[in-house]
Amino acid sequence: METTGIVRRQTAERMRDALERLVTERDVWMSTAHPDHGPHQVPLWFLWDGRAVWMCTSATSVTARNVRKEPRVRLSLPDTFDVVLLQGEAECFPDQEVPGSAAEAFADKFGWDPRAEEGPFLYVRVVPRTVRAWRGEPELRGRVIMRDGMWLE
């Protein structure tokens, strides 16, 4: 792997860059696991509300079944050079019980309101407990920018 030209960012800069990406990006990879069936990974649209990631999936999907059984999840933004990984516990909201502000913000961002669909949907909220961010090998050291739900400075 060539790392020439990579300038190692300090924690505050990594945090700022990660938060900017959480606001502006559309897709996140969500990794779940079922106690009996093992890991499952799927890309989903997401919304960052300033504290938590909100996603939505069919209420009958493997992802929905997994988070109901095992709420610990990992999320990853889809760039393998500018890595942002989040870890936390999923909280589930059936589409007719989701907080209105979250559902409206999700619909505004994507132009799609799952509450209006025929089949049931599940909103999944993840408040990160750990966030890691790095660009290339020079930034592997110091990649943890949030620990135990607290941003590191």
UniProtKB/TrEMBL annotation:
Kindly list the GO molecular function terms attached to this UniProt entry.
coenzyme F420 binding; oxidoreductase activity, acting on the CH-CH group of donors
Q: Which InterPro entries match?
A: F420H2_bilvrd_red/Heme_oxyg, Pyridox_Oxase_N, Split_barrel_FMN-bd
Keyword terms: Oxidoreductase
Q: Name one Pfam family in it.
A: PNPOx_N
Q: Gene3D superfamilies per the record?
A: Electron Transport, Fmn-binding Protein, Chain A (2.30.110.10)
The Pyridoxamine 5'-phosphate oxidase N-terminal domain covers: 24-134
Q: Name one GO cellular component term.
A: cytosol
Cross-referenced PANTHER family: HEME OXYGENASE HI_0854-RELATED (PTHR35176)
* Protein name per the record: Pyridoxamine 5'-phosphate oxidase N-terminal domain-containing protein
